[in-house]
């Protein structure tokens, strides 16, 4: 007796791969982002060491939700603006990678809005949203 492939198995495998590509799981979180401007030193992570800042100036201070008793220092996140109080504020096609260098609660420069998840440098905030906004809603994922 010869083995014959069942057509429904091929159909089932095809449907599974189709659904897997459309409904992939998301590992990102949502929160809010504010911005802060210089002076950035000293920081809670590395004091007065200016080498902690990436050369592209895409860095941030961690809000209480991700501070993790200082374990967030040096962590990197992909950040994307998803919405804001004013339509057209976000640059939805832009995702940036930032490094945590400070704690929002103790940063020298105060954030534009208190209680945000991530406080972005002015360069980082301007890359994903209109810099005149005080805060935006973001999607972020640790990398």
Characterization of the model:
By secondary structure, the protein is α/β, with parallel strands linked by helices. It has helices spanning 7-22, 64-67, 122-128, and strands at 29-36, 59-62, 76-83, 95-103, 118-121, 135-142. The protein has one domain: Beta Barrel (Barwin-like endoglucanases). Helices cover 19% and strands 29% of the residues. The radius of gyration is 21 Å and the shape is elongated. The model has no long low-confidence stretch (mean pLDDT 90).
Helix/strand-derived category reads alpha/beta
The share of residues in helices is: 10-25%
| CATH superfamily placement | RlpA-like domain
Total beta-strand segments: 6
Which H/E pattern describes the elements?
HEEHEEEHE
Taking all Cα atoms into account, the compactness measure Rg is 21 Å
- Biggest beta sheet summary: 6 strands, mixed, barrel
**Overall pLDDT metric:** 90
Identify low-pLDDT runs: none
Q: How many domains make up the 3D coordinates?
A: 1
The oligomerization state is: single chain
Feature tags:
single chain; 143 residues; alpha/beta; Barwin-like endoglucanases; 3 helices; elongated
What would you say about this model in short?
With 143 residues, the chain is an alpha/beta fold.
């Amino acid at each position: 007796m010869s083995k014959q492939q069942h057509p429904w198995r091929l159909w089932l495998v095809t449907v599974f791969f189709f659904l897997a590509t459309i409904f992939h799981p998301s590992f990102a979180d949502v929160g809010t982002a504010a911005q802060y401007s210089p002076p950035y030193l000293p920081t809670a992570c590395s004091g007065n060491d200016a080498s902690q800042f990436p050369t592209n100036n895409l860095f941030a201070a961690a809000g209480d939700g991700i501070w993790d008793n200082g374990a967030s220092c040096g962590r990197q996140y992909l950040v994307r603006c998803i919405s804001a109080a004013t339509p057209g504020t976000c640059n939805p096609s832009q995702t940036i990678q930032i490094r945590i260098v400070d704690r929002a609660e103790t940063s020298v420069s105060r954030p534009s809005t208190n209680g945000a998840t991530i406080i972005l440098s002015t360069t980082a905030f301007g890359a994903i949203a209109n810099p005149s906004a005080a805060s935006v809603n973001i999607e972020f994922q640790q990398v």
